[in-house]
Amino acid sequence: MAVGVSQVRVLELEASGDDIPRFASLAHCDPESRAGEPVPDLSSYGYNFPVLEKLLTCSQNCFATLTSLKLVNFNIDEEGGIMDHVLSNCRFLEELSLKGGTGLKNLNIVNLSSLKYLSSGSCWDLGKLKIISAPNLVHFEHKGFPEHPLPFMWLDFCFEDVPLLSQVTMDTNYLLSFMGVRRKHEVYSNQLEKVFMHISCYSEFDNVVNFDYRRTFPTMRCLKQLDMFITTVPGASLIFFVLCIKSCPFLSTLFVQFAEEKITQNDKVEATIRTSLRH
């Protein structure tokens, strides 16, 4: 179906290249000459994000009607604040997903009043994530890809004015920040209803169990469901679970799935699902 560029609601870019400049050039055309032009097939390989800045310089803001934006396997040159510039023009954005990106060091979600779902994953250079004034944000997800776990990196989180945030998905880096810098997460922790924790290899779990336990989880008084997917080895400390359960006094559903890592003679790690516990 032919759709004018200015009518685009959903934009998904996954390792795509040659068609992005064409998409940008369509945005520069007069509306009359744009009529009937299809949204391009973004299925080729490899792209850099800054080329999309062209979309924001046309006479009509082509992101004005965008409700969903998904970027996968992208490169970003943060010179000029291109990501901030793009997001500031997405006034009706409801879903934002960023996965497999490089070059993105700071992600600022500011004054996105329509945003309901935010996902970031395997953004290798991301060091700071700020969510300020996202009054309709319900679900925030931050995790790496299971087959390519992120190296440990202390992430700087900032949350302000997220009154509806009730569901979060955590990887190890998010979890350690959640435990270690309570004041930054207490803004929303007592309104959480569902939490999903993913620890995809034992080296990550070791970071958690050896954490300074004089620091504890923020209280999660409204939490009803907690799902944990954890990779560990036999005999590992379980004090992590005690602290976690103590922080959610009204928990009604607990699901824990263990994957056990075994070191073979060839020092290869083999993960096998051992057991699932449901309460």
Automatic annotation (TrEMBL):
It comes from the Eukaryota. Residues 58-139 form the F-box/LRR-repeat protein 15/At3g58940/PEG3-like LRR domain. It holds the Pfam family LRR_At5g56370. This is OLC1v1013591C1.
